[in-house]
């Protein structure tokens, strides 16, 4: 429609004629922001009253319906109203309706001092549009002054800052709330805004390179990042938990920097140069298993940045969720990606983007959950022009590897499975998140329970059940256990052992929480809620089968998910930017989706036992089978695609494996009676048999892959990644027969499980299965995260262990105390290696006792710990009474001369010691002179290592002299 015709029309007529166009302009972005801004202006001009607003903005009603309501309202109010309405639209969306036909409205600027006749509440109303713009950038500060002046309580603040509101909505809520508190409160806000305007203009003067538009954008971004990250979503269903109140530090490991492992690392250090493997690369990767706390850690980074507490050298931070990026179907440029998916600049887009291009080192991008992106990282399709449009995953890969926006730092989180060599090449560094430490568990539980008695009880029951304590190293499990403390305390000591037990507990907890009968949940709780379980289960299952984690209303309808199923709390509403206008949901956590998928696989009468074999299929076989049948085909459902491409199956393997682990647990004998009322028992039995068969077959395949030993060499089995998973499945199933059967077929003398991501939970499972081995083996667990709790979990299988290798496993003296308490009675146990743990002198009295007691103990390696002269003296006490030890390694401790002298004294007449290392121990000549006595007198010593000490000429001469008289020593 041409401008001339428009000018000829009356405002009311025009409103009717251009209705569709106006609605589109107001609503097509999917955000309610434009509509609300128009209403602000009409409110300020007195054209709308509060009641009108309530009639227009009906919560839960579709955006378009609300906008229609407004159009109807201004139409009925008459010509003048329509005219003001057009003016408002014109100001807010200058381009939207083409040429202007009315004079621009009176655009006011903030100015409170000139009109003393108006009351502060009047001012709040007449200046509303400008106040909203201003306040959205400084909600925190405004709330602070309101609390300090006694007008607001913290509950008032929480109500305003709910993360479901955008910053501008929070500003409006603040204004409305202040209005209800009266004139003084209004005055406080007006003064605060005026002061912050003044300080803003002085900031711009001191920092002239940042333009006004940039500063505004920065504030908007900061407050939107803050709003998104303030609360933890796992608490969303029941209550709001501020991240600040619950966040507990997680353990971290820098793989190439063992000295710093498990040490607390701040965000500055993580982003900075420490532990860099590639100084040219800009991407820092934080990897960890599902539930290890990656998203929460990143959320913490976002929040602390937004609060101005960390990483302030970065002026802009753009947070992305890969899960949400999956639903972006359009090709985008980097500029569109940043502005449309993170924060929209109200003005000066080009200028702000140019700033980003000119100052990449001042900008930080974060990408959460790279493993959830539908496409695997590849380094193929290169683009380097920021204005070039491309599919979002292509942009993402180019950003990560640096051909786009070189110099911008990126932080990416992912599960380890999705991190291949192609990606590693482009990493500045990689850190591993390792969940909570034992003290972290304690700290989390205390934060979670405001009642200290309740916290103490939970902690007590964890201490009494170390298998459960082991599980709690995973933050997601610690969260469940804390959520379900009532069930936990009510279910009797030791009854929770497996991950499946814990997830069944939370399932029951949610149902209990929503049970209409508030009495204890019935014995048939599952049957009572079977409909919900099957609906949600199907949704979860189909999601896992085709890498979907966000579900539309249509997806939910297809699976029969009802409003009351949603209310149970397993699903939370997803904040998906690109689908903002329609509601979407996701599961509270990916592991919960896997659990519900597993329940569906078992309970659905439509899934046969073939679904079980597909779930258990090993990755290697899966690759071979790719072009054949597919996982989805096992389900009699229409909407699972029949062709799943290789990369998505590969990306999905971890979730399928978690689901299979739950399937194993659910098919345990212990739970069979739970299923009787809920499914066909014949079918469940068939599925159980199938799962057992798959596990047994999987183990055998593994054992077949063990190469024949070379002559004289021990037969050794190096675990493939899936070995630990199979072991965990057998443990979840609590199937001793299966464990015995598998172990009877294992013919190896040495099990190598290095770098297998073994923590306490895996140790529990390993011990459960390995204890059934027929012959003693060496168990090599170097470079995992066993920790003290893991050591304790391994105890049940120590009787079949002759050598235990636990290098680099975060073990302390306490773990050693428990270990030695056990192995002291086990004649098979002869060797231990504990290089690079956290041992101090306190552990040496236990080793001393071991040496005294066990006269067939052969090898003790304690390198790179914190043992001093005192510890060496303790060891010497044990060595005096020992006649069997052949290898003693103390490399990289601090035993000094005194320690060396004590050891030499104990070993000088030894007839067993063959190899002794005191490398790097601050040993001087006095120590070396003492060592010469061993060379001189011991009949067995063959190698003595003394490098990296401070031995001078006297010491060397003494050693050389001693060597003249010796017949056994081969090297010093
Ligand atoms: P991941 O991203 O590794 O799968 P999440 O960060 O989603 O794991 O963690 C799952 C849940 O565990 C969170 O929703 C939260 O309840 C809890 N959690 C994780 N990390 C922490 C932490 N550092 N402090 C407190 N709770 C945490």
Outline the fold blueprint.
Layout lengths: L2 H6 L2 H7 L1 H9 L5 H12 L5 H7 L6 H15 L1 H14 L27 H7 L1 H8 L3 H10 L5 H7 L6 H15 L1 H24 L5 H18 L1 E2 L8 E2 H4 L5 E2 L13 H5 L11 E5 L6 H13 L9 E6 H4 L5 E2 L1 H8 L7 H10 L4 E6 L21 E2 H10 L7 E6 L6 H4 L2 E7 L4 H11 L3 H12 L2 H6 L3 H9 L1 H6 L8 H16 L10 H4 L1 H16 L5 E2 H6 L4 H5 L3 E3 L10 E4 L2 H14 L6 H7 L2 H7 L20 H21 L5 H5 L4 H24 L11 E3 L2 H13 L2 H9 L5 E3 L7 H11 L6 E4 L6 H8 L6 E5 L7 H11 L7 E3 L10 H10 L5 E3 L7 H12 L6 E3 L6 H12 L7 E3 L7 H13 L5 E3 L7 H12 L8
Parallel strand pairs: 4-9, 4-10, 5-7, 7-9, 14-15, 15-16, 16-17, 17-18, 18-19, 19-20, 20-21, 21-22
Antiparallel strand pairs: 1-2, 3-10, 6-8, 11-13, 12-13
Helix pairs in contact: 3-6, 4-7, 6-7, 8-13, 9-12, 10-13, 12-13, 14-17, 23-24, 23-26, 26-28, 30-33, 33-36, 34-38, 36-39, 38-39, 39-41, 41-42, 42-43, 43-44, 44-45, 45-46, 46-47, 47-48
Bound molecules: adenosine-5'-diphosphate.
Structure description:
The protein contains 48 helices and 22 strands. The protein is α/β, with parallel strands linked by helices. Among the domains are: 11-102 and 119-196, no CATH class; 231-436, 3-Layer(aba) Sandwich (Rossmann fold), CATH 3.40.50; 743-964, Alpha-Beta Horseshoe (Leucine-rich repeat, LRR (right-handed beta-alpha superhelix)), CATH 3.80.10.10. The strands form five sheets. A nine-stranded parallel beta sheet has the order 14-15-16-17-18-19-20-21-22, with no helix packed on it. Strands 3-10-4-9-7-5 form a six-stranded mixed beta sheet, with helices on both faces. Bound molecules: adenosine-5'-diphosphate. Residues 232, 234, 246-248, 250, 288, 290-296, 444, 475-476, 479, 589 line the site of adenosine-5'-diphosphate. Adenosine-5'-diphosphate is lined by residues 232, 234, 246-248, 250, 288, 290-296, 444, 475-476, 479, 589. Belongs to the NOD1-NOD2 family.
